[in-house]
Amino acid sequence: MTDLDLAHAAMDAAPDDDVARLRFYERLADTELFMLLGEEAAGDQVTPELFEIEDQRFALIFDREARLAQFVGRAAPYAGVPGRDLVKMLTGQGVGLALNLEVAPSAMLIPAEAVDWLMQTLSHGPEAAEARLTEISPPAGLPEAVVTGLDRKLAIAAGRARFAYLAAATYDNGAQGHILAFVDAAPGAEDALASAAGEALTFSGIEAGVMDVLFVRASDPMAAHLAKVGLRFDLPEPVTPQAPTAPGTDPNTPPKLR
Asked: Pfam families given for it (predicted)?
């Protein structure tokens, strides 16, 4: 079973569990999805093959190329797109997602309203803070769901930083919370890392929580202090990408809807 199969099974087994539902949609956003196209892609422009089901339009998507091939049963054009990019592409278009139809236990119809909701959820970016740190101490009181959520998010952030530390923080205005400090972040990766931290909070189901994001160099004195008191997360080494096999499989140039 794939990660999406497992997340779908957990959601299906507990239909009233908001956290299980959030985790399914998190996995959907983080998964490389393969969308059936109506025609061959023209450069970075793609045209999804749309189907009407129960008076709604759906794009056919699969979490494995083999599953797409099994459903179609013939050679067909498709695009590989990260789930978050696919949602961004289709939001506001009145198009839902038909996931793994007839080929997997995670088969389901995701209506257009859910696509728009997921895009809004993913769009909640970090905000700049003005308060100054006065104390950094070992993390305490964070729900386990946040820690495991961070672990999942950072596991797919290969090459964007060497590692990160989670610690409790006190500010000069008396506020308390937590910080996630990334060590030796790659140039230009700061926004993506901050968004990943924010999503870990959002999809953990925690209604209220504060976690600021910092970026430090390994040579900074703060990094040495964080190494003593913080919970460390190691980010994977980057993997050399293989040549794309279909339009959209290059994560640096996601396809555009046409």
From this structure: SseB
